[in-house]
Amino acid sequence: MIARLQLYGLLALAFVAGVFGIYMAGVQRGIARQQSKIDANRLDNYKTAKETADEVEAMDDPHLADLARRWVRKDQ
Q1: Mind listing the pLDDT tens digit for each residue in 34-70?
Q2: CB-based contact 67:59 (threshold 8 Å)
Q3: Which residue ranges make up each domain of the chain?
Q4: Distance linking the first and last C-alpha atoms of the chain
Q5: With contact defined as beta carbons under 8 Å apart, do 43 and 50 qualify?
Q6: Could you give the count of Cα atoms lying within 13 Å of 23 in the half-sphere of its Cβ?
């Protein structure tokens, strides 16, 4: 009788451990997916910043000054 209870106890413990393992695998997969989205967003932001910096470097000084006048407030 005790051996049968031990067997049921071990089976229940194995089941709970399996369910917990599956749950943790799902959590890790979700974390990896979220990290992938963050990395893709960060890379996109870097590309945009690089394109903007390259665009500004390609401009000559008078053209850059004309563009800056639109964004800088006038002192009175």
Answers
A1: 999 999 999 999 999 999 888 878 777 787 777 777 7
A2: yes
A3: 2-69
A4: 96
A5: no
A6: 6
